[in-house]
Automatic annotation (TrEMBL):
Residues 52-310 form the Protein kinase domain. The lineage of its organism: Eukaryota, Viridiplantae, Streptophyta, Embryophyta, Tracheophyta. This is [RNA-polymerase]-subunit kinase. It comes from Oryza sativa subsp. indica (Rice). It catalyses: [DNA-directed RNA polymerase] + ATP = phospho-[DNA-directed RNA polymerase] + ADP + H(+). Residues 26-38 have a biased composition (Low complexity). GO terms for molecular function: ATP binding; RNA polymerase II CTD heptapeptide repeat kinase activity. Signal peptide: none annotated.
Amino acid sequence: MAAPAPAPAPPASRKRAAAPDHEPTASRSSTPAAAAGAKRPRRYALASVDDYEQLDVVGEGASGIVIMARHRRTGNKFALKHLPHGARDFDAVRVEAACQHACTGHPNIVQIKDVVADAKSGDVFLVMEFVGGSLRDELPRARPEKQVRFMMRQLVGAAKKMHASHVIHRDIKPENILNSFGDLKVCDFGSATFVNPTGKPYEECLVGTLPYTSPEQLAGNHCYGPGVDMWPLGCIMGELLTGAPLFGGDMTEKELLADLSANLDDQLNELFYDVLPELSPAAREVLFGLLAFDPEKRMTAAEALEHRWFAEEPKKANFAGFAPLFG
């Protein structure tokens, strides 16, 4: 009697293969109790970075480099943020991606598209829309008030979206603002976090970049709030108007805090009446509100957008000589 024919092989799975488990895992124990109590390591099905042709390095930050890349199938360009394996805990990468994804849909926030990995090295890459150069590339250059209003409307709108999504960026600065033909986009959520319940402290206090760090962070207050994003927006507004950073220089954290504590009002009066005497009263009110030393008195993003300075309808060409910053 002939032997039965072998059963047909099961069809190949169409699901993404799970990425190699590069997260730290609990050591295995031979005892049943320990095995039962141990948490199983999480595994994530990440697409391959090999789907992208990596072209040029276009940026570099504390947590990784940014690479312009082309999707091999569609030909579309993207920005890959390369996060080398071991440089950051994978949970921190997940928080960054989740914070940025929570802000999806706003035109002034860089959109995250995917998270991919190099199966050999374990390196992780955030796939984002490709925009272009940063606002820092255009500084120092003073701008007219109407142009600054147009730019600040976009940035404050981005902050309103982040805060409504329960996200604090914590590192807003010109380097983390990209320009797409006059449209500004906040990027790099590497320092971002979700908002803690009232009274619950954050582990990190001094997170961002010193000249744009809020007074409460300089003072070591771990129970801060979304106001730490509004302070740097005030710094950026002043920098756009004057062409130079308002604070910091070569100061240490303690020196900057002491200077702001003693001299902030005098510095703002000098700015308004000596450096920018033609600045409108409405613009002064917004800048003064964003740079309130006390975070409880600082303007929120929603309050700022309701201010009369932003009351006019936004028009990209509402002042003489407008041109896209990177056009």
